[in-house]
């Protein structure tokens, strides 16, 4: 005869015993981990024999949670490495591994996840890997996500305006409007002193952007926003090598890291094979273990000619092969060939600035007449005996103020009495 079903209380008791046994087993294993970090592998093998979780799967399962933890549920900007550390321990526990390479997580897993699941609302601040300089104002913007967002007005400035022009002649600008219409992009850092000495930015009214190799998300974000505000062309200087063609070919192309909203017009200034031959530049040997057939297809896609591909199969030429004079003359000639001109505003902007210059000149002449009397009046005003204490009070009220701004507040209140 079949045996009778166990009474409900016996089933409950059996389930409880089984649960307690598993719980005790898990607890013993966790205690073992505290004695030996490598014991977590044994725990996974004992308790999760049926499935081995991959690093990618584990990362994707908890990426949202990691971002929320690192960014305080999206209320704070976060660095990618903060997300890495927010999920690292759990990924290792889920996969039974001892190591997780940060480069693999940051450059592959995080970027793949953000592309697949549309994390465009995530406020991630990637480190600066280059810089952008306006002509004339000399405002320099590091090519990091936060700095670019501040420059284009998508985030408040943490330290006040990046530039406040108080010049006797310059029209106050911030951004391309009435200041520049083109950008010179250089694939490497280090040319600033030479460009500054030759005043390339000032002569051609163009902004200069340089990066450490391949363009980063921040540089693409910046170019995308600048096009919306009137920038017409981006002129690119690059080494004559495989990487140089990849840079020119991908700069204005959407990727996992950034998706363009606007069409960015790219102009290749070189180096190209014709430039190398024209200036008789010195090449250097180059070898790669990668599939040359795949490289050839990539070079063709990015605009390399048959002769250039043949040259690059064994050699390369850097921008640095040009001496200083060659480099400057090369840039000037190329920009002139493409018709880059000075920026002159039209209509009310130009007329308004001219009127301000007239007002400034008249005010300076009037001030000169009363300057001596004003200085005497200022000297006759007594400063409070407790000036230092008043400044300290201002700083107590607003600890972010510098001492001189606090003193200015005190004086402003004194004159209003």
Q: Descriptors for this entry?
A:
53% helix, 6-stranded mixed β-sheet, Dna Topoisomerase Vi A Subunit, Chain: A, domain 2, two-stranded antiparallel sheet, 417 residues
Q: What's the β-strand tally?
A: 8
The rounded distance between the terminal residues' Cα atoms is 106 Å
Q: From the helix content, strand content and strand pairing, which structural class follows?
A: alpha/beta
Order of helices and strands: HHHHHEEHEHHEHEHEHEHHEHHHH
Structural shape: flat
Helix count from the secondary structure assignment: 17
CATH class of the largest domain: Alpha Beta
Count of structural domains: 3
CATH topology of the largest domain: Dna Topoisomerase Vi A Subunit, Chain: A, domain 2
User: Average pLDDT, to the nearest integer?
Assistant: 80
Describe this structure in words.
- The protein has 417 residues and is α/β, with parallel strands linked by helices.
- It folds into three domains: 89 residues, no CATH class; 208 residues, Dna Topoisomerase Vi A Subunit, Chain: A, domain 2 (3-Layer(aba) Sandwich), CATH 3.40.1360; 69 residues, no CATH class.
- The chain is 53% helix and 8% strand.
- It is built from 17 helices and eight strands.
- Strands 2-1-4-3-5-6 form a six-stranded mixed beta sheet, with helices on both faces. Strands 7-8 form a two-stranded antiparallel ribbon.
- The N terminus is likely disordered.
Q: Brief overview, please?
A:
This protein is an alpha/beta fold.
Topology of helices and strands:
Blueprint (H helix, E strand, L loop, with lengths): L7 H28 L3 H9 L7 H16 L9 H16 L6 H15 L13 E4 L6 E3 L2 H7 L30 E5 L5 H7 L1 H5 L1 E6 L5 H12 L4 E5 L4 H9 L15 E5 L2 H7 L4 E2 L6 H10 L4 H7 L2 E2 L7 H14 L10 H33 L6 H11 L5 H14 L1
């Amino acid at each position: 005869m079949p045996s009778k079903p166990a009474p409900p209380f016996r089933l409950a008791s059996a389930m409880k015993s089984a649960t307690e046994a598993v719980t005790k087993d898990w607890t013993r294993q966790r205690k073992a981990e505290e004695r030996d970090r490598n014991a977590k592998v044994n725990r996974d093998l004992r308790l999760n024999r049926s499935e081995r979780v991959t690093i990618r799967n584990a990362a994707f399962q908890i990426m949202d949670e990691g971002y929320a933890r690192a960014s305080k549920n999206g209320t704070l900007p976060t660095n990618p490495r903060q997300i890495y550390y927010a999920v690292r321990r759990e990924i290792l526990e889920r996969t039974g591994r001892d190591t997780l390479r940060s480069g693999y997580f940051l450059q592959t897993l995080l970027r793949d996840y953000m592309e697949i699941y549309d994390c465009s609302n995530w406020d991630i601040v990637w480190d600066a890997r280059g810089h952008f300089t306006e002509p004339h104002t000399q405002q320099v913007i590091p090519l990091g996500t936060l700095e670019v967002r501040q420059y284009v007005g998508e985030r408040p400035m943490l330290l006040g305006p990046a530039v406040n022009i108080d010049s006797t002649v310059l029209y106050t600008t911030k951004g391309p409007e009435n200041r520049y219409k083109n950008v010179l992009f250089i694939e490497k850092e280090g040319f600033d002193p030479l460009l500054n000495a030759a005043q390339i930015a000032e002569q051609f009214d163009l902004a200069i952007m340089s990066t450490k190799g391949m363009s980063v998300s921040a540089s693409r974000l910046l170019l995308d926003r600048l096009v919306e505000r009137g920038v017409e062309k981006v002129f690119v200087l690059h080494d004559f090598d495989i990487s140089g063609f990849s840079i020119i070919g991908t700069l204005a192309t959407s990727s996992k890291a950034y998706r363009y909203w606007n069409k960015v017009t790219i102009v290749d200034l070189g180096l190209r094979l014709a430039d190398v031959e024209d200036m008789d530049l010195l090449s250097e040997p180059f070898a790669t273990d990668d599939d040359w057939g795949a490289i050839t297809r990539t070079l063709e896609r990015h605009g390399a000619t048959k002769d250039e591909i043949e040259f690059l199969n064994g050699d390369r030429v850097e921008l640095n092969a040009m001496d200083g004079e060659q480099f400057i003359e090369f840039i000037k000639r190329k920009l002139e060939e493409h018709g880059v001109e000075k920026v002159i505003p039209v209509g009310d902007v130009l007329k308004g600035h001219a009127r301000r210059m007239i007002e400034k000149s008249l005010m300076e002449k009037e001030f000169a007449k009363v300057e001596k009397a004003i200085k005497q009046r200022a000297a006759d005003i007594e400063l409070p005996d407790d000036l230092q204490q008043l400044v300290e009070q201002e700083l107590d009220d607003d600890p972010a103020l510098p001492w001189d701004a606090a003193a200015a507040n005190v004086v402003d209140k004194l004159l209003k009495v």
